[in-house]
Design brief:
The structure is a single chain. By secondary structure, this protein is an alpha+beta fold. Helix 4 (196-204) packs across helix 5. The chain is built from eight helices and 19 strands. The strands form six sheets. Strands 6-7-12-10-11 form a five-stranded antiparallel beta sheet. It has a four-stranded mixed beta sheet with strand order 1-2-5-3, covered by helices on one side. Strands 13-18-17 form a three-stranded antiparallel beta sheet, covered by helices on one side. The protein folds into three domains: 4-69, 2-Layer Sandwich (Uridine Diphospho-n-acetylenolpyruvylglucosamine Reductase, domain 2), CATH 3.30.43; 74-186, Uridine Diphospho-n-acetylenolpyruvylglucosamine Reductase, domain 3, CATH 3.30.465.10; 234-337, Uridine Diphospho-n-acetylenolpyruvylglucosamine Reductase, domain 1. The two termini are 31 Å apart. Bound molecules: flavin-adenine dinucleotide and uridine-diphosphate-2(N-acetylglucosaminyl) butyric acid. Flavin-adenine dinucleotide is lined by residues 14, 49-56, 69, 90, 115-118, 120-122, 124-125, 127-129, 177-178, 227, 230, 235-237, 335. Flavin-adenine dinucleotide binds next to strand 3, strand 8, strand 12 and strand 13.
């Protein structure tokens, strides 16, 4: 166990905001996760889990221990005529898994190309993009219980997945370290082209017969055209979730704003938060060190020199304005640490 003290986290998160971890450790195996958790229990100090740092906003220094997942490995553990079961270490970079799956003829992850971060964090918020969510390809995961060090398996039902949701963000928040995720991936392409922009992008590229790789390439091009590259400008993707409104609330919004982009959702109607923020005039909003992306209003950016609290303030200003104009409450998608 190699503990570092007073480790800067700025280079370990995509927002690049200043924050120092009192103690920091990277774990490359389940055994080392259990050993570190035993140390943390004995110390009685706070614990924070970090993957690729692409969905966290750090608002200050972190007392206690930051545990970063570095567990490697992409392993085929079974197959039948139609699908393959693949067990993946939590530290595997998500996009590397997507590329490796395409290389090996395992399909179903192509719409999720270029999402930053680690595989272990994927189930936390059931990552999704371009008409596919992780849960559709998910079979099970293994996690270490923080309080006991015991390893537990969770099947699909146990994870209680929803839109940008899982049990690990709700009832079991802060209780488990995910170490491995097992997927069931189709061996025959199961293309999802329903998200309008994919069809347009394939047509623009002259692709007549799409396959998983051309879909992946189309998704990558669309993403690059609107989302800022965290290597160049600090951000954590969508800062807010797209709100899901009741039918009544949606009807009222649509009556006043007939053009509001919307999508059916299991418990109501999902509306595009980016559109609301854009219509409210925030797109490209500039506060010098930070602001709102000029091509996607759902993305807050850190240009350098801001503190986490500045981003929190900007987010609160946007939430208040959107609520005042549209009566819609925006909920943060990004995880704020320490919580405010
Ligand atoms: P981190 O940011 O390190 O952690 C996120 C949360 O999960 C934290 O609360 C952390 O404590 C917890 N956590 C992380 N790993 C583990 C683990 N192994 N066990 C237990 N808890 C853990 N998301 C989408 O869904 N769709 C998108 O299209 C999308 N696009 C993005 C585009 C950009 C440019 C950026 C910067 C982000 C985007 N995101 C998107 C958000 C982000 O990529 C995902 O949420 C991703 O899954 C975060 O992974 P991470 O490893 O960076 O997690
Ligand atoms: N829109 C605007 N102005 C903007 C931004 C968006 O009018 O500034 C409109 C668009 O024209 C479109 C609608 O809003 O009609 C939706 O926009 P987009 O297709 O860009 O997707 P999004 O709803 O803003 C969601 C996810 C993304 C994911 C994309 C593609 C959430 C919170 N965000 O964004 O995920 O990549 O769809 O599936 O669900 C993330 O979670 O970090 C993330 C980037």
């Amino acid at each position: 166990m190699q503990l570092e003290s007073h480790r800067s986290l700025a280079d370990l998160t995509t927002f690049g905001l200043p924050s120092i971890a009192e103690h920091f450790v990277s774990c490359g195996s389940v055994e080392s996760v259990r050993e570190v958790l035993e140390w943390q229990r004995n110390e009685g100090c706070p614990l924070h889990i970090l993957g690729g740092g692409s969905n966290v906003l750090l608002t200050g220094d972190l007392p206690g221990l930051v545990l970063r997942l570095g567990i490697d490995g992409i392993e085929e553990i079974g197959r039948d005529a139609d699908s393959v079961r693949v067990r993946v270490g939590a530290g595997v970079v998500w996009h590397d898994l997507v590329m490796e799956s395409l290389n090996r003829g395992w399909f179903g992850l192509e719409n999720l190309s270029l999402i930053p971060g680690s595989t272990g964090a994927g189930p936390m918020q059931n990552i999704g993009a371009y008409g596919v969510e992780l849960e559709e390809r998910f079979e099970s995961l293994e996690a270490v219980e923080i309080a006991t060090g015991e390893v537990r398996a969770f099947d699909h039902a146990a994870c209680a997945f929803g839109y940008r949701e899982s049990i690990f963000k709700r009832a079991l928040k802060g209780q488990f370290v995910i170490t491995h995720v097992t997927f069931r991936l189709p061996l025959v392409p199961d293309l999802r082209l329903g998200y309008g922009a994919i069809q347009q992008e394939l047509e623009a590229a002259g692709v007549q017969e799409p396959d998983p790789r051309s879909v992946s390439e189309a998704v990558i091009r669309i993403r690059r055209s609107k989302l800022p590259d965290p290597a160049i400008i600090g951000n954590a993707g969508s800062f807010f979730k797209n709100p899901v409104l009741t039918e009544e609330a949606f009807d009222a919004l649509k009556a006043a704003h007939p053009e509001v982009p919307n999508y059916p959702a299991p418990s109501g109607v999902k509306v595009a938060a980016g559109w609301l923020i854009d219509q409210a005039g925030w797109k490209g909003h500039d506060r010098g060190t930070h602001g709102v992306h000029d091509r996607q209003a759902l993305v807050l950016v850190h240009r350098g020199g801001a503190a986490g609290a500045d981003l929190v303030k900007l987010a609160e200003d946007i939430q208040a304005d959107v609520h005042a104009r549209f009566g819609v409450v925006l909920e943060r998608e990004v995880n704020v640490l320490p919580a405010v």
